[in-house]
Amino acid sequence: MALMSVEEAIGLVTAEVSALGTEDVPVAAAAGRVLARDLLARRTQPPADMSAMDGYAVRGADIAETPARLAVIGESAAGRPFAGPVGLGEAVRIFTGAVVPEGADTVVIQENTARDGAIVTTTAPTATLRNVRLKGCDFTAGTPGLVAGRRLTGRDIMLAAAMDHPTLPVARRPRVALMQTGDELVLPGQGTGKDSEIVVSNAFGLAALARRAGAEVTDLGLIGDDLAAIRARVAHALSGAFDLVVSSGGASVGDHDLMGPALRAEGVDLSVHKIALRPGKPLMFGSRGGVRVLGLPGNPVSSHVCAMVFLVPLVRALQGDAAPGPLAAPARLAVDVPANDARRDFMRARLERHADGSARVTPFASQDSAMLSVLAAADCLLIRPPFAPAGKAGDPCEIIPFDD
């Protein structure tokens, strides 16, 4: 059977995926969540013409010629506006963030004035509307400030709060179940020291990636290489408590690779199996009812790379994220690299940023799919397309940066 391309597999994994539902959360808790509806401003900002500096609010016509002597008739401070208009030959002492009084159209900064009792003299020319933040220059009531599908940053939260939203409509977090198979696996600190044992690691990295993408994660634990036991765990995962089931291990076609048979036996329609990528060829994807199932390889690096390419975009898409990824970034090779074969290669690499803003990428010499030390030392994945010719140092390339 011919291997499926990475692009086709991503298309199938994220096909017909939309947000699972909507919930309202306090604005203080909305960072990292995906906005479910366009957010309209509930007020105008600033709500009136405001001073951008400490100084004096005046009529521009009164200071057309400098020096100009004006009578100080009051004060306007933030939260305590001056009551009344500014007339001919008058000025109001004003502070940053205060409402500009009616009649005034300019603020002369304090450094350009001299005060003598109730008289202020301007010592430098100031143009009309100088140092004034006009009403609505930031946003106006009823206009969209943030659009649906946006993953909210801290800056977005600031804007939402300023638009007077105490709560925000966001996509529900996908509920993800993790399971890992293998007779050789033991939990950290619980092994007997036998050479045949391998301390489990995949689930921790997968959980971190899924949570960072916005999921609620439940680890269903380790399962031995027993078809009945795997089927029972799969049946539980598909019972309706989860939106996405993610397995690690048992995805190939060996005698002990039982995840595929278990999934099929439980009615999962596997639309994806065996991808033309490295590392991670034995990857599965399917669904039963409304529950999606992603079967990742057991090798730690393969599992993690496939999660970056498939799991993270799927979790994001299940929240209505407008840009679920995987998002590639431009860079340049720091060294020569050989030609690639028929599989899309995701090479662990070190990223070096230069003063001119360019990023130079050096792949590690070892790309063994079991070497976690190389994965931990890497800054990014260097993407080598199928049949890419040999690359020279300085050639453009694409990377997927690690953002954790």
Summarize the main sheet. Answer: 6 strands, mixed
Q: End-to-end span in angstroms? A: 36 Å
Pick out the low-confidence regions: none
Numbering strands along the chain, what is their spatial order in the largest sheet?
A: 7-4-6-5-9-8
Counting helices, strands and paired strands, the structural category is alpha/beta
| DSSP strand count | 26
| Helix run count | 7
Helix proportion? 10-25%
Strand content: 25-35%
| Coarse morphology | elongated
| CATH class membership of the largest domain | Alpha Beta
Per CATH, the architecture of the largest domain is: 3-Layer(aba) Sandwich
Domain count = 4
CATH topology of the largest domain: Molybdenum Cofactor Biosythetic Enzyme, Chain A
Give a brief outline of the structure.
The chain is an alpha/beta fold and 404 residues long. The protein has helices at residues 6-13, 154-162, 202-212, 227-237, 259-265, 300-317, 372-377, and strands spanning 22-26, 39-40, 50-51, 55-58, 68-76, 90-94, 106-109, 113-116, 119-122, 132-133, 144-146, 167-171, 175-181, 185-186, 198-199, 216-223, 244-248, 269-273, 277-278, 284-288, 291-296, 329-333, 344-353, 359-363, 380-384, 396-401.
